[in-house]
């Protein structure tokens, strides 16, 4: 996260500094050509700043650059007062005055993907700053080429016409709402969605939704995805064929809540969930985006939902252990459908000469008391694994790069594995190569897991293979009390005092092999491996239609008669 702050500060400083420098060179020196060239670079810097800082207000920089470009243009032509150039200046003034208000108004517009309607107005308003930057770049290049001022006026009129069309459309939507609802509402009424998936989270959290989309689609009922932040729209829209809608306001949410909707699913405890919970006609169901013994998996906020889908009985016990009193009838054990692609290994994993070990460090968390990240001592740990002839797959948490220290520590692990791969030929996987694998693919390739406290351990449990959990010392002697899932694995302490003994139990003797199967049932439910995801699908269909019942399994005697041939 500190890395993001540094990048944002750099973008702000570069955009402002380049704009000021360009204006000074044009206005206060005779180096007009250099000043115009610097203006183009300054415009590029403002565009980059808006990418790094979505919603950044670069109005002051753009105004300064525009003034410099116009002064430079006039000097290049050296023809005294030019009406065309004056007209260009007036249009630029109007554009810069309108860009901010139009962008703000456009940000309040509903956006849709995977729906046969055009929501082009908010998309255009979001790019108005880039449009003005592109126009100024054209004017700067025209000035460098000493083109007639009428060229600048024509380009400005084109840009002004486009902005005017957007302004008219926004005014029409405010003053003359379409009868029968907006085009999106009318199309949703035709689509007849029965449930929605609601999502609000910072950028980079889209995995919380994409892990559930395949299973929501398998329910077999039409649905929509409602987003509250615009950055998630393209990522999630590409991951499903269902309509995906960005609703920036409560009013836009009202447009999406069509009468056919019966339920709303949630994947986290985001603060904006309350905006959707106000629709009391819906059944509100919390899915979570992972199952672990972290405190976040027993959040008291869960109590506000009508149903809490949990992987197994251990999740219910976790709430009770945390002192969170929730009526038992709110919980529904559905398993963890995402693990169905994980292969189950029933035989022992012992004395493998060259085991493959999956290492999954988590991130540092928002607070020190939630920092279960093992990266500070991971280099020594992986060195011990390499000494045992292990092949290592490193799969870090998606937020790891947000912390510069964690990013550097992860980089050292990559260097360590790259050097060992060059020396021994062992096919270690890390970086982009490891990221190209799904979690299930990573689990299936590995013989053992070393993980921090996270939902990965619960998913791995489905495989039946041995695992170790790192104890970073945050909880002192209460580690196993707070994270009972670690009791069926092997605990690696932060000081690595017993690392060799732990790795021997993990990769060789595996004395906890039988205990893991009982833990597996408690954490992941007692569902048949062959039809594991049906636990979730059946529960979801029942919530959508209380009278729905799963078809009875057919026996051999129920099979239709086939005459012998």
TrEMBL record:
Gene3D superfamilies per the UniProt record, alphabetical: 3.40.50.12580
Keyword field: Membrane, Transmembrane, Transmembrane helix
Superkingdom, natural source: Bacteria
The keyword Transmembrane helix is annotated on this UniProt entry: yes
Residue stretches spanning the membrane: 84-103, 124-144
SUPFAM superfamilies reported in the protein's UniProt record: UDP-Glycosyltransferase/glycogen phosphorylase
InterPro entries referenced in this protein's UniProt entry, alphabetically: Glycerophosphate_synth (IPR007554), TagF_C (IPR043148)
Protein name: CDP-Glycerol:Poly(Glycerophosphate) glycerophosphotransferase
């Amino acid at each position: 996260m500190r890395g993001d702050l540094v990048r944002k500060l750099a973008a702000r400083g570069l955009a402002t500094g380049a704009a000021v420098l360009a204006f000074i060179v044009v206005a206060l020196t005779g180096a007009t050509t250099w000043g115009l060239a610097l203006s183009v670079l300054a415009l590029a810097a403002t565009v980059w700043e808006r990418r790094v800082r979505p919603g950044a207000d670069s109005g002051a920089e753009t105004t300064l650059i525009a003034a410099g470009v116009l002064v430079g243009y006039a000097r290049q032509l050296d023809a005294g007062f030019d009406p065309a150039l004056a007209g260009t200046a007036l249009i630029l003034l109007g554009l810069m005055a309108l860009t901010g208000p139009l962008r703000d108004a456009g940000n309040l517009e509903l956006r849709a993907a995977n729906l046969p309607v055009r929501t082009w107005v908010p998309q255009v308003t979001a790019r108005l700053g880039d449009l003005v930057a592109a126009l100024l770049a054209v004017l700067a290049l025209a000035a460098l080429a000493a083109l007639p001022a009428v060229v600048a006026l024509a380009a400005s009129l084109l840009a002004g016409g486009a902005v005017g069309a957007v302004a008219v459309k926004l005014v029409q939507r405010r003053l003359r709402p379409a009868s029968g609802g907006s085009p999106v509402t009318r199309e949703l009424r035709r689509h007849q969605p029965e449930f929605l998936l609601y999502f609000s989270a910072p950028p980079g959290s889209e995995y919380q939704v994409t892990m559930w989309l395949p299973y929501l689609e398998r329910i077999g009922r039409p649905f929509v995805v409602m987003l509250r932040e615009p950055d998630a729209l393209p990522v999630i829209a590409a991951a499903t064929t269902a309509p995906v809608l960005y609703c920036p306001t409560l009013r836009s949410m009202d447009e999406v809540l069509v009468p056919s909707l019966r339920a709303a699913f949630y994947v986290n405890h985001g603060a904006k969930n309350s905006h959707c919970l106000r629709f009391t006609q819906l059944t509100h169901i919390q899915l979570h985006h992972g199952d672990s013994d972290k405190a976040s998996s027993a959040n008291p906020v869960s109590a506000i939902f009508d149903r809490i889908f949990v992987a197994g009985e251990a999740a219910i016990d976790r709430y009770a252990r945390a002192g969170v009193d929730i009526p038992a009838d709110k919980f529904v054990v559905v398993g963890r459908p995402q693990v169905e692609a994980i292969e189950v290994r029933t035989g022992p994993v012992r004395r493998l000469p060259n085991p493959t070990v999956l290492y999954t460090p988590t991130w540092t968390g928002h607070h020190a008391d939630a920092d279960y990240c093992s990266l500070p001592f991971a280099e020594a740990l992986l060195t011990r694994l390499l000494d045992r002839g292990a092949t290592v797959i490193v799969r870090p948490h998606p937020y790891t790069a947000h912390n510069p220290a964690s990013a550097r520590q992860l980089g050292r692990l990559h260097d360590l594995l790259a050097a060992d791969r060059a020396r021994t030929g062992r096919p270690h996987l890390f970086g982009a190569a490891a990221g190209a694998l799904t979690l299930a693919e990573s689990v299936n390739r590995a013989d053992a897991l070393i993980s921090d406290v996270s939902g990965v351990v619960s998913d791995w449990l489905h495989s039946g293979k041995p695992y170790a959990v790192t104890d970073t010392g945050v909880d002192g002697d209460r580690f196993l009390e707070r994270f009972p899932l670690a009791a069926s694995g092997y605990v690696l302490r932060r000081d690595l005092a017993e690392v060799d003994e732990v790795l021997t139990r993990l990769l060789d003797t595996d004395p906890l092999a039988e205990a893991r199967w009982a833990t597996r049932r408690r954490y992941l439910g007692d569902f048949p491996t062959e039809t594991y995801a049906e636990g979730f699908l059946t529960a979801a269909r029942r919530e959508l239609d209380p009278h729905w019942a799963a078809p009875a399994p057919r026996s051999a005697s129920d099979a239709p008669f086939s005459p012998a041939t």
